[in-house]
What we know:
Elements: H1 6-11, H2 15-32, H3 46-57, H4 66-72, H5 74-77, H6 84-100, H7 104-117, H8 122-134, H9 138-154, H10 158-175, H11 178-195, H12 198-214, H13 218-232, H14 239-253, H15 256-266, H16 272-288, H17 292-302, H18 311-324, H19 328-344, H20 348-367, H21 381-396
Amino acid sequence: xxPEGLAVLEELRSDLGLLLWKQLRSVxxxxxxxxxxxxxxxxxxxxxxxxxxxxxxxPEEDHDLRGPLEELLEVIVRPDRADPERxxxxxxxxxxxxxxxxxxxxxxxxxxxxxVACPAxxxxxxxxxxxSRDLAQYPRAEAWFHRVVGLSRQCRxxxxxxxxxxxxxxxxxxxxxxxxxxxxFLKAYRxxxxxxxxxxxxxxxxDLFVVEYHLGNEEKGDEYAAEAVALYGPEHERFPRIAHDIxxxxxxKGAYENAMKVLESVLPRLPDSAQATxxxxxxxxxxxxxxxxxxxxxxKRLRAFPEHAGLAEAWVEVARGALILGRHEEAREAxxxxxxxxxxxxxxxxxxxxxxxxDAVNAEEKAAIHxxxxxxxxxxxxxxxxxxxxxxxxxxxxxxxxx
Length: 403
């Protein structure tokens, strides 16, 4: 069967890792065989032997893996009767456990097993696409994206279809392919509007707002932002995310104090996966607002995060903040870290930003002068009003889920 599942053995060098690898390969073999040919697929003695392995490795009945692994034994015990949807869900539960343990490649292997075990469900395929994207495995993510689009269109699962285009747009944005990102987000937005799906329509508008600002189209970005905020409302689980992105735009305009206040409020309302991004943005806003103690706290928190999507860009923001404060060595250190992370993860746009900060540091040192990144923007009553509205909404909203 080739190298399937080797990532499991590489990440989990233990009896549990070996058990997971064996069960993964059993599921993949089962999925690869036509349903009409699955009778007698495995030797009779394999089922009790595998069951004994599960009990030996996971003696605790309440272990998170005990249930899904026993469920997956169905492909060995009764391969002709095992239900594809149930097998897919069991694989997804193993992936959830692996992700919680930091075994990201193991999670990806089981998500892919879920998708091939139940090939008619586009949501399993979407999970593979998004996880591949977040692991910077872009060719794999692109292949699964096309699979999701085809499956979801075939079964008219328009929400999954739209989420696939949003996920694809996010991937293109990370790679610096801004026109491609905009096309994917627009396709998602138009389909969501056509189908009357408010939630994913707001998500697409949110992302269009971000990409338009990257392209320098601030007026169009503002239109998308206003529509997205209106669709979300302060109680929506994604409200904190758009609050962060609005704060980032304010930061870009030099409204540092407004941005800092929103970012400080949004930080405890976001999931762990977004904390690095917000701490990076907060560090830069705090530097521009002239509050170095907030900058230092944000930078200190960022040092504790493991490598993942968004971390490289967060360090770019720290570098920019250090540059605002005139701390050249700290700016260089953060920018070098960001560039190294972005190079490993093939994040072209972020790598370019890190190199631009390094160029700015070198230019300032050569000229022996310090130029503030942007002058502080003049106070704006409408911006102040929106800041209060967002901060108040954040304080009243519930913690959100990850994208």
